[in-house]
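Appendix C reproduces, verbatim, an entry submitted by the partner laboratory led by Prof. M.T., so that reviewers can inspect both the input and the predicted structure.
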Amino acid sequence: MNTLQIAGVEVPRVGLGTNRLTPSDEHVAFVREAVAAGVRHIDTAHLYTGGDSERALGAAAAASADGVLVATKGGYGGAGQGRPEVLHAQIEQSLRALRVEAIGLYYLHRVDPETPLEESLGAIREHVDRGEIRHVGVSAVGVEEIERAREVVPIAAVQNEYSLGERGHDDVVDHCAREGIVFVPYFPVRGGAGPAVDSVAARHGVSANAVKLAWLLHRSPTVLPIPGTLSIAHLRENLAALDLALDAEDLAALA
């Protein structure tokens, strides 16, 4: 199995994004099916579906399932959202929604243009010190911000937009690989479609998204994509990337 360790948990290198999840019976059942299918890393955020994504994961008891890491995020929405008092309130709300005493991985969702990065992470660090957050990540950041963040608290993961079709953070991907930080690309299957992807997919008998995810897995050993879906069939197609070994011909076609 193609796995890596993130926030102290060994997980398959394809996770699940949940920005459309709601606490309906159907979606709660889907989360449980996803875990049964092998998903061990689930990503959510305080703001996703107005808090319903976290509540759905709480209802599914996902964050307390054995060997499952649920990551959430706070501090998104522009100026002022990274203030300590805002983050404290959001963290407490996330703990309640997820129905846990400690969050396995918590990201600063965005750097607040009006609040120093160090101040925001200092607030998150307080919850680490209390035992309410186990590991910390940062999102939508460059290399310089990652290093500033590491001066405040150990950084377990970085989450930026990155995919076959969007490679603007190549330097961050490489930096994370050198430093042993997990790089979690969001929107990992957006863009990049075309005849080359379709040809590689047909050759291997997998979906186009599985090819895009396999390319990410090949890109760096510390990459862990989190494609979002509400379909168990699509989720299984995504997980097929774990067993897809792209050869030199495939990689040349996708370059």
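The beta strands are 3-6, 9-12, 16-17, 41-43, 69-74, 103-108, 133-139, 155-161, 182-186. Additional entries are available on request from the coordinating office.
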